[in-house]
Amino acid sequence: MKHPGTTARQASLNEQRHPRRIHYTYVLQSESNPERHYIGPTADLKTRLGEHNRGGCPHTAKYRPWLIKGYFAFQSKEVAQRFERYLKSGSGREFARRHFE
């Protein structure tokens, strides 16, 4: 994003130094218990899946290993977190059930 008083070249250089991060809301499915799902946010899907599968998250350690069932990408961390909360709500669970099963 170009700020007032910033040239296009300065804005481009700033973007190269500080690229926008993509934030994800992901849905995991347990391989050992396929009825078990986990929903969470992250900026690094691969690393986060590894943490779940190593047992680094107490909420998911018992049901390892995990597969990514689906994910949604957002430019904003706040929007990714809001979508996570939605998916954990009653209507969001129904949305996930309809679209991921």
Topology record:
Elements: H1 8-17, E1 23-30, E2 37-42, H2 45-54, E3 66-74, H3 77-87, H4 90-100
Antiparallel strand pairs: 1-2, 1-3
Low-confidence stretches: none
Structural class by secondary-structure content: alpha+beta
Which percent band covers the strand fraction?
15-25%
Q: Please, how many helices?
A: 4
Helix content: 40-55%
Based on DSSP secondary structure assignment, what is the total number of beta strands?
3
Whole-number tally of structural domains: 1
Form type: globular
H-E order:
HEEHEHH
The pLDDT mean sits at 87
Largest sheet: 3 strands, antiparallel
CATH level-3 fold name: GIY-YIG endonuclease
> Could you give the distance between the termini?
38 Å
- CATH class equals Alpha Beta
Q: Rg, please?
A: 17 Å
**Order of strands in the sheet with the most strands?**
2-1-3
The CATH architecture can be named as 3-Layer(aba) Sandwich
Descriptive overview:
This protein has a single domain (20-100), classed as GIY-YIG endonuclease (3-Layer(aba) Sandwich). With 101 residues, the chain is an alpha+beta fold. Strands 2-1-3 form a three-stranded antiparallel beta sheet. The protein contains four helices and three strands. It has helices at residues 8-17, 45-54, 77-87, 90-100, and strands at residues 23-30, 37-42, 66-74.
Give the tags.
single chain, 101 residues, 4 helices, 42% helix, globular
Produce a short descriptive summary.
The protein is an alpha+beta fold. The chain has helices at residues 8-17, 45-54, 77-87, 90-100; strands spanning 23-30, 37-42, 66-74. The protein has 4 helices and 3 strands; from the N terminus they run H-E-E-H-E-H-H.
